[in-house]
Amino acid sequence: MQAYITSSIPYVNAPPHIGHALELVQADAIARYQRLAGNATILQTGTDENAFKNVLAAQAQGVPVQALVDRNSQRFHELTQALGIAADTFIRTTEPRHRHGVAAFWRRLRREDLFKQQYTGLYCTGCEDFLLERDLV
Q: Which residue intervals of the chain are DSSP H helices?
């Protein structure tokens, strides 16, 4: 058996918090269990630097977006090290290897794999979701 385990890749609009630590420890525990069971296991974690939240946070702090994501991504990486997380890889969505992987994924898709439809709606930056008027408070 093989196991591929990944944490979510959080936005880096702020430093990590206890919830991020909990998720990393949980993913690490599952990976360690799989390895002890003799299963080939890969544990991946990292950060997502492609979000409007990152842009807004950088503007609020008066710093360039790249400086914000570099600083906070480093903090997430340091958290994995401080917790002793046995991750096989830590990836940032701005890295060339991530971009190449995404491009390869898109090239493999067939036309029938895609669903396209235009949508216009009320967008909530906080929850990153489109809402209906009836959902507004």
A: 18-36, 52-61, 65-82, 96-108
pTM: 0.84
Q: Which residues pair with 42 in a beta bridge?
A: 4
Give yes or no for residue 108 having a pLDDT over 80.
yes
Encode pLDDT of 76-88 as tens digits.
999 999 999 999 9
Residue 113 structure tokens:
């794999």
- Tokens representing 112 are 């029938």
H helices present in 37-113, as ranges: 52-61, 65-82, 96-108
